[in-house]
Design goal:
By secondary structure, this protein is of the alpha/beta class. It has helices spanning about 1-20, 110-120, 120-135, 175-190, 230-245, 275-295, 315-320, 345-355, 380-395, 440-450, and strands spanning about 30, 40, 60-65, 75-80, 90-100, 105-110, 140-145, 195-200, 250-255, 300-310, 330-335, 360-365, 370, 375, 400-405, 410, 425-430, 435, 455-460, 470-475, 480-485, 490-500, 500-510, 510-520. It is a peripheral membrane protein.
Length: about 525
């Protein structure tokens, strides 16, 4: 009997451990690599987690702090006061000023991300996927998927390699899809409490459809919109949706192609397909739109641009000037890379005010892309601040969600076949079977964990000039979320006034990101 009891207890132990991991909060295991702050190390059995978040009852608020000093989503609670505390700085919630609704946040399942995730043991893989997609994780709901290869692949390929195959009779998904990305997406979906919003982007058409006969460099589709090459390229998108549907993966949206301006540059070093805004517009009107409407996926959204926001509002004006475009197009996809060159109000704000019926959505961003600040920096708090600043700025200018680039990279920032190495919120160390959650991971978490789909941005006003960057939201259940970035090296004391509940007195630590949340009924 004792032997039987011991065996039963042993059999229960692994199950008990899993339950312990998935409830409550676990603390960060910090590692310092000398870049100003820390990463949190995770393995198959342990990872820090804020857990499933439940707000305290009316009259109290929850606070979540991450900072350069090493706090990571550190949770605390406080009282909401009836009277003002007399703080010099007051942030007032203005609930009747209503703006855009949130669609979601996420990252990209590139070939490189899949390779890195699968380089870990099964238990550590599950841990990593849980960190992004499960209820105790940070609530990613958007996953961008490259259609065939991009620079974050180990080789150049498309799904239609047979020349002159205009009917796409030989269209075939790659092993990268069937053996890596699709199984991981299915696992992510199984962990997520809600259906994931999948977003597809193509980097290049097959070489035989292009003017330069190559996947890289300066090249666009042969012929004209309405012609056989343009029609075949539209059908390529439909075939992609059909093949993924066979694996129970359906797409919320796809873009008209990654960075169309790249394919118009001479000697561009990796996969690209050039479009002018007029060519993109006409291809959608004459080929892609009708093909999608006639397919089994007429509800899939089409997003134009998928390139840097400094191309706005010009690109939107060219496309949306044609009344036929509105039949097919739902939104505008933007990348973050050259954001500092043009004010958000001039690009995003103007586009929204001119064309409010089309939504704006962030589809790609990563740290470590700049030649002067390249590759992986384990523990860089500056990069976390770059993320948070850009997300707040985008949200405050009508963007409905923000998608990071690779979900996971190795310690060199790859693999990448052109050695275009960058950083990622999760860095994998396969030799030790661990992964590091970067400060940028927590930057994303302050938004993705708390801004549920359907949350609505509302007004927030400051009583005086302040270094704080803020954005306020009312969630579908009526609770309020206020996200505050303090990039200054000073602690800033302030109070929040929500006319519905009262006053919250608190501080923003130096070099910190703070999410406050409270119920209103």
């Amino acid at each position: 009997k004792m032997a039987l009891l011991s065996a039963t207890l042993l059999a229960l132990v692994p199950f008990t451990v899993v339950v312990t991991l998935s409830t409550g909060s676990n603390k960060c295991v910090p590692r310092n690599f000398g870049h100003g702050s820390v990463v949190c190390e995770c393995n198959s059995t342990y990872c820090d987690s804020v857990g499933s978040v439940t707000l305290p009852p009316l009259g109290q608020f929850s606070s979540y702090l991450s900072n350069k000093a090493g706090s990571r989503l550190e949770e605390s609670q406080g009282q909401v006061h009836v009277n003002s505390t007399g703080a010099g700085l007051r942030l007032t919630i203005v609930p009747y000023q209503k703006y855009q609704r949130i669609r979601g946040f996420g990252g990209a399942m590139t070939d490189a991300a899949a390779i890195n995730i699968l380089s870990l043991s099964p238990g550590t893989q599950d841990q990593l996927l849980r960190q992004y997609f499960s209820t105790e994780g940070i609530g990613y709901s958007v996953v961008r998927i490259p259609m065939a290869s991009c620079d974050f692949s180990t080789r150049l390929y498309t799904y239609a390699e047979t020349p002159e195959d205009y009917n796409l009779d030989n269209f075939t998904l790659a092993p990268e899809d069937t053996k890596m990305k699709i199984p991981l997406l299915q696992r992510a979906q199984a962990l997520s409490p809600r259906p994931l919003s999948l977003l597809a982007s193509a980097w290049s058409a097959p070489a035989w459809l292009k003017t330069n006969g190559a996947l890289i460099g300066k090249g666009s589709l042969k012929g004209q919109p309405g012609g056989k090459e343009h029609k075949t390229w539209a059908q390529y998108y439909i075939r992609f949706l059909e093949e993924y549907a066979k694996h129970n993966l359906s797409f919320w949206a796809f873009t008209t192609g990654n960075e169309p301006t790249a394919g118009r540059m001479t000697n561009y070093s990796f996969q690209a397909l050039g479009f002018t805004p007029a060519e993109q517009r006409d291809w959608v009107i004459m080929d892609l739109g009708p093909a999608l409407q006639a397919s089994s996926y007429p509800d899939t959204h089409i997003l134009i641009l998928d390139d840097n926001r400094l191309l706005l509002p010009y690109w939107a004006k060219v496309v949306f000037s044609d009344v036929h475009a509105s039949k097919y197009i739902h939104g505008v996809a933007v990348h973050w890379y050259l954001d500092s060159f043009v004010p958000a109000e001039l690009s995003l704000g103007t586009t929204h005010h001119l064309y409010p019926e089309y939504y704006l959505f962030g589809t790609e961003a990563c740290a470590g892309w700049s030649p002067v600040d390249r590759g992986v920096k384990l523990g860089s708090w500056e990069r976390a601040e770059q993320y948070a600043h850009d997300i707040i700025e985008d949200l405050n200018h009508y963007v409905e969600g923000w998608t990071d680039w690779n979900l996971a990279l190795d310690q060199t920032g790859g693999p990448n076949w052109v050695k275009n190495f960058v950083d990622s919120p999760i860095i994998v160390n396969a030799d030790r079977d661990v992964f590091y959650k970067q400060p940028t991971f927590y930057s994303m978490a302050h938004f993705s964990k708390f801004l549920w789909e359907g949350s609505r941005r509302v007004g927030v006003s400051a009583s005086q000039e302040t270094a704080l960057e803020v954005s306020a939201f009312i969630r579908p259940d009526g609770s309020v979320v206020l996200i505050i970035l303090n990039r200054s090296s000073s602690v800033i004391q302030f109070e929040v006034w929500d006319p519905a509940v009262g006053y919250i007195s608190t501080t923003a630590a130096a070099r910190s990101l703070l999410t406050l949340a409270w119920n209103t009924h």
